[in-house]
Amino acid sequence: MIPVKIxxxxxxxxxxxxxxxxxxxxGRVACPVxxxxxxxxxxxxxxxxxxxxxxxxxxHHDSVKETVMAGAVIGCLIAGLAGVVKALNMAGGFDVLxxxxxxxxxxxxxxxxxxxxx
Length: 118
Ligand SMILES: [Zn+2]
Known about the structure:
The chain is mostly helical. The protein has 2 domains: about 1-60, no CATH class; about 60-115. It has 3 helices and 2 strands. Helix 1 (about 40-60) packs across helix 2 and helix 2 runs antiparallel to helix 3. The longest helix is centred in the middle third of the chain and has 28 residues, at about 60-90. The radius of gyration is 24 Å and the shape is elongated.
């Protein structure tokens, strides 16, 4: 649950707790006094809260970062391998060359990410 505090244009403040769906308000919300729509403001507050929660976790749990990095490296390696496999299965010389260049770039990215991490 995320506490959302909204200051309406009419001066009325209203507070509620919401369980966001896909990082957004599951429904609409309006000022209890003037009825002005507060959904957009609520969405901004939810986005801000989620973002600050994420950065908070990142600074205290390096393992999360490590996992993300490992995922990036593995993703790059898979892309590189897929490029090589594709090149091996192809007949045309130029297409194979393009695939190999793509694979090399993907491998280079993986290595770059790996060494940048250290
Ligand atoms: Zn209002």
